[in-house]
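ARCHIVE CARD
Drawer: 12
Card no.: 0347
Subject: one protein chain, sequence and derived structure
Cross-reference: see card 0346
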Amino acid sequence: MKRLVLNPWQVALVMKNGALERILTSGPHWTWFGEQTLICDMTKPFVPPVDLSILLENRQLASMLDVIDVPEHEIILQFEKGVFRGVLPPGQYAYWKGPIRREFIRADRSKIWITEPVDRTILERMEMGPFVRSFIVEPYEKGLLFINRQLDRVLEPGTYHFWKNGEPVQVVKSDMRQLQLEVSGQELLTRDKAALRINFHAQYKMLDFVKAYSEARDYDKQLYLALQLALREFVGELTLDELLERKGSVGAKVLEAVRPAAEKLGVEVVSCGIRDIILPGEIKEIMNQVLVAEKKAQANIITRREETASTRSLLNTAKLMEENAMLFKLKEMEYVEKIAEKISNISVAGGGDLVGQLKQIFVPH
């Protein structure tokens, strides 16, 4: 015989010849030779030494266990004292009743949407990765949910969780902010056959994401083509000089022409315009020469205008001095003062009145 003492949280299964003979609970016990004893910790899941269905034929053991069957399309979320402990995949499980309070949430993975009362933080746990698929729609985005390749709904910003199963689920997202589209390096011909390159830009934003994705393939490429064609058509109707003069109005004309096509694509073109006009070297040199000639002509006109004004002013002054002797005398004294400022030394030779000699120097007879 063999003496055995069990703690309050322990249970012993006494086996003989592979069959369950009896169950021992807490306290001292004796076992006979030839009997095998399996001591189980009631705070942990029960791991049967043989097939569980055979052991459950013992009514006492069956009453002491919580047996959980998980079919193929389900999982069970296990909680101990309100704390998430793990996921039970398909299979059969047994737990001892009594020492620890356990809760179980059964989830049906055959459906797409998660309707079970499971907190989002638990769905984002690493243990849930094999069973949950997650999609994040940023605050500046919108998403289209496709289930089995069929459009189901529009998703607003947020985090979405779905069960993983054989049903294909796809989320297509689009940026709803204002976007920039560059139409660069366009080789164009004006009406007077001048070849040039234009860098064009446009700002647009999404209006109807469903229309843009479901009714138009690669809506951004189609918008690019519409802008390109509208720009070519408008530039082809202008001469080079007209294009350079009306550069600022090109964007408004192209915007007006492209707006109907953009609405069919589900987008709105907010603004557009020419960034650069790049001329060939020969045309650029000729235009520089024309500009220099124009500036020279303007400079000559200004010079002649100033000379004419100066001459007219002198003539008016002369007429006033001729008519007014006092004014002539004042002007004479002004010039004498200016001459005197430039003379540092005066040498007087001979005798006579000094003031008289100075008068003879400065005042003409």
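Annotation on reverse: The longest strand covers residues 195-206. The mean pLDDT is 84.
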